[in-house]
Amino acid sequence: MSNTAPRAAVGIISIGEMGVGIAKLLQAYDYEVLTTTAGRSPATSKRATDAGITVLPTDAVLVETADYILSIVPPRDAIATANRIIDAYTSTSRDTTKPPLYFLDLNAIAPSTARTIESAITSRAPAIRFVDGGIIGMPPTPHNEPQSSAPSEPSSSPSTDPALASSLLTWKRPSIPVSGPHAITAAPLSGAHLATVLSIKHLSNEIGPASGLKAS
């Protein structure tokens, strides 16, 4: 959609329907999208490859490479996925000159589960910036593509860039409420732009309100 150089590298775990939709949206706005399919089925690997997503061999390589990691998994897998990223982060040497890694839990979990994940990250990998979140709506699609059920409501954009805001009107996007002390808009690498593209809305500096909204 633009001719600029790629922006931040965004890892997505895992590559289901929502993950693919978000990947396509990010790719349209010059983000590099990464994943790892270690331990996943061949069908998952093929889905990622078919979507043009860069498949990395291990979680360790993912945390070394990504600037943001989005966890989009079944709720029962949210804690295990966070622990995978923590284990990978603590077992590798991420370049200290890189901006901090942001880990966004976008799963339909209870606020107490979000706080459990935050506690694990704070105690074991405090350099990771944890963001509590959720996804409300259907996977992103361009307006000329069909959706599997009712479309998402149009998402308002916090962007002050009229060209970006206008181009985003060509997409049906879910909204992504987030909470916690680390606002994506303040992230040093593509933060404000990423928040606009993904329709991220920061609700609170506390962990829990975003996951509570999704769970309610």
UniProtKB/TrEMBL annotation:
Entry GO MF terms: DNA binding; NADP binding; nucleosome binding
Domain (6-phosphogluconate dehydrogenase NADP-binding): residue spans on this chain: 10-137
Pfam families xrefs: NAD_binding_2
Gene Ontology CC: one annotated term: chromatin
Chain intervals with Low complexity compositional bias: 146-159
GO BP annotations listed: transcription elongation-coupled chromatin remodeling
Protein name stated in the entry: 6-phosphogluconate dehydrogenase NADP-binding domain-containing protein
Species: Macrophomina phaseolina (strain MS6)
